[in-house]
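Dear colleagues,

As part of the handover before I leave the project, I'm documenting each prediction I ran so the next person doesn't have to rerun anything. This entry is a single chain, and its sequence is reproduced below.
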Amino acid sequence: GAIPHFARGASLVKQKNWAEALPALDRAIALAGGNYLYGRAYLLRAETQAGLGNFEAAIEDYQLAQEAGETAPHVASNLVWAFFQTGQFEKAIEAGQIALEDNPDDLWLQLHTAIAILGAGDIKEAESQYRLIMDNAANQVQDKRALGDDPSNIWWQLNEASFQLKTFSNLLNNQKAESPVKEAVNDSDAIA
């Protein structure tokens, strides 16, 4: 059956062993059959494809995972990121905005959508979104502290977002670097 292959693939994904995870997840999906969308397997295969840099394949699998009921905000956020990685900024923004309707407080989803807006060249809107994200993060930290929870994951997300923005800026400023993201940016001088 599909379950042993899925379990092996899931274990390999957790280890970030993408090359071995992919055939195990392919087999699990094949054994599940066309009449049964194996949402979790599609989700893990999407993560695997993204880990391998196969973002077009990841997009397809994230969408299949969503169709099969995998609707957690991180799934949409990862889909937005995969669209961003292929330079499909408008699709990234659309996917992000739709997901934000159901998950308005998800910082990771907000951050990935904002970087797609930046990639599309809408500097003023991206700045506005980043200000809202910072306000939302501060409110979430206050709420967590009031409940006695640890807010460190929020700061980690903001730190990671800062790193992604710096990486994006460096890519745009590097004359020798080639990337579908860089090629798709409308006005890289305005962003950098």
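The chain has a mean pLDDT of 85. The radius of gyration is 18 Å.

All the best with the project,
I.
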